[in-house]
Amino acid sequence: MQVGYEQVFEFGYVCSVCNDRAIPKVSVIPERAYQYLRHLSLCDDDESKLLRLKSVGGVETIQFLNYVGVIVTPDGFQIEILPKIVKHAEHNDAVSDSRRSLLNMLRTLGMYRHIQTAAAHLEKYKMPLLEIFIGQFLSSVNQLVKRGIKRDYQPQSDNLFYLKGKLNINAQLKHNLVQQHRFCVDYDEYVPDITVNRLIKAALQKVLLMTRSAQNQRLARELEFVFADVSPITVQAISKETLNLSRGMEHYQVPVAWSQLILEGISPLSMRGDAHAFSLLFPLESVFESYVESVLRQTLHPPFTVKGQLQTSHLATYDAKRMFRLKPDIAVYNGGELKLVLDTKWKLIDASKANGADKFLLSQQDFYQMHAYGHKYLQGEGDLVLIYPSNDKFTAPLTSAFEFSSSLRLWVVPFDIHHQTYDGDRLKLPSQLNGQLTHAPDISMVF
């Protein structure tokens, strides 16, 4: 299996090592890895969400779109795609800051709530993302082993020199008619060979194929030895098994969640046919939306409530049928009254570019969308909020509201994703909007 690693930022480019000239800001990867990605980019619509063939400087390249995470190609080459959270991703801390921010946001997704991002783990942000995930999986299994792996009674059949359990008469007549000193028996044995342990062992074996870290390799081998008496099982067989975490097996939840993630991955890519291909990819728009909503839910208290993905209004009706559902990301209610409609956008805007055609790098299409939300959900009166990730060019709300009318306003505000512990406001609302949340604490968060 080929060993190699490349790191790019979202919307970055890669080309094949076979090209005869270097292109600025285009990463070079091995030919086999490039051809694999090229094949995927020409597949179905799912792949087109992630990969796009594009010519840069007269050279064919593949551009990664708004998915981030890890791709391992069938020959073992690893590609890490990171969110671009600063305007100039080349600065010294860009890579570790991107990994830290991504991990912090992923914790708000249910299946990743066990990701650790405490200060003790900050040094790990310099490791590739895949090694961070593998390290946390191995740590969870190590904790499981210290508490003791689960055993259960399993039916066994064997031909022994002594009588144990129940004699199998049919098998005894078939196999031991001559050698009468042996016994074909059926019995129950208290063994660790149960489904959840097979799942974890399969994940450990896959990790050994993927990890490049000597520390992770050593720990994975030690843990695999603990599961030596557990039968091997294929991913296909696991999918047919019923995982039953019974009472008293709460300590299995995190290792099992990591095991399923490592064995199955998450991806829009068609990688099912190759056992060595693996991807763990996340749509940034959805991750950012989930993160903002989670922070607001934990920050705002009664009488304020937060709801996600409203779906009660449509853009138009045709023959009395409602059409084109409108789905703002987040809504804040005061009791039963809708107070604010908020929408998240994963884009880097620039507060210094107010003049000319730049318009802070805002999208006119986003404004059309918010205008529709304002008229359908707020009946044309109130405040709307567009939330973008903060960056070095956008650290405070734009000073004025965009006025759709004298009674309908749109505010553009930053949301800090960079730190898991932060003393200032996470969602930086202008003072005019903070006044509407007078019964709520400041919008600040330790997360």
Short description:
With 447 residues, this protein is of the alpha+beta class.
Could you describe the 3D structure shown?
The protein is α+β, with helices and mostly antiparallel strands and 447 residues long. It has 3 domains: 4-148 and 195-283, no CATH class; 152-191, no CATH class; 300-446, no CATH class. Helices cover 30% and strands 27% of the residues. It has 12 helices and 21 strands. It has helices at residues 31-41, 45-48, 94-106, 129-147, 169-175, 195-210, 214-226, 235-240, 253-264, 284-299, 364-377, 431-434; strands at residues 4-9, 13-16, 26-29, 51-56, 59-64, 67-72, 77-82, 152-160, 166-167, 183-191, 278-283, 304-308, 313-318, 321-326, 330-334, 337-344, 382-389, 402-405, 408-415, 421-425, 444-446. The chain has a 6-stranded mixed β-sheet with strand order 12-15-16-17-19-18. Strands 1-7-6-11 form a 4-stranded mixed β-sheet. Strand 18 and strand 19 form a beta hairpin.
**Mean pLDDT reading:** 81
Using the CA coordinates, give the radius of gyration: 27 Å
How many helices? The count is 12
Shape: globular
